[in-house]
Q: What sequence folds into this?
């Protein structure tokens, strides 16, 4: 009996997965229900009103109704995200067909991913660069040695720090650097300086990692007291 239950569960999961795959492959061509090609609404068919299938690549900015720029209106981002989720959340389609449930699940997941990406400055910057054909590799070859040495020294300072005051002083300096880099990142994107934006993002990643390490060590010190 348990084996039968597991088999049915697996079959249902495979069925939903296949539906989602079909949704992606057919998206953006025509409505899956009425076959209309007049799909000028992001989420719903303009002809019959059903939730349309998502495309393989949806632009996160268009998805959340935002201008395609780095310095976004964060309040509008939150408002648009909540409004969209209120329309396409899977709970709204609980009484619909399995196909429509699968589409809603796909959309909800995609909108969540878009929101998480655009709500964080580094991820938003990386995404904008990707849209412009610029990728950030995992190596450090694009950074100058002076900066890398400075990061090594800063990491050593964090490791050697023994008191909360020392760590707070480091955290304050790191915070100033992060604020400065964020300002430069805004300027680079405004000037369409993609190389400059790329370098600023890489530096920000280093500084954010150090900031996180400092916070973790401060928390550890506080717990010991």
A:
């Amino acid at each position: 009996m348990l084996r039968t239950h597991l088999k049915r569960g697996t079959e249902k999961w495979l069925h939903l997965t296949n539906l989602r795959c079909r949704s992606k492959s057919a998206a953006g061509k025509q409505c899956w229900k009425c076959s209309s090609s007049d799909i000028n609404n992001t989420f719903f068919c303009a002809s019959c009103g059903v939730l349309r299938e998502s495309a393989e690549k949806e632009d996160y900015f268009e998805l959340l109704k935002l201008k395609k720029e780095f310095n976004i209106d964060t309040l509008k981002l939150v408002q648009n995200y909540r409004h969209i989720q209120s329309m396409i959340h899977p709970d709204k389609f609980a009484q619909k067909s399995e196909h429509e449930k699968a589409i809603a699940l796909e959309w909800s997941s995609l909108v969540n991913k878009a929101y998480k990406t655009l709500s964080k400055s580094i991820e938003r910057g990386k995404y904008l660069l990707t849209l412009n054909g610029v990728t950030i590799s995992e190596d450090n070859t694009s950074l100058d040695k002076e900066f890398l040495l400075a990061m090594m020294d800063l990491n050593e300072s964090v490791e050697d720090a023994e008191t909360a005051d020392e760590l707070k002083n480091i955290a304050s300096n790191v915070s100033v650097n992060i604020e400065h880099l964020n300002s430069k990142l805004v300027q680079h994107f405004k000037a369409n300086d993609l190389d400059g934006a790329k370098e600023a993002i890489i530096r920000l990643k280093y500084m954010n990692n150090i900031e996180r390490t400092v916070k973790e060590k401060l928390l550890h010190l506080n717990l010991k007291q």
Q: What stands out?
A: Confidence is low (pLDDT under 50) at residues 2-7, 9-27. The longest helix spans residues 194-224. The chain is about 65% helix and 0% strand. The helical segments are 2-26, 60-63, 74-88, 98-118, 121-131, 145-160, 164-190, 194-224.
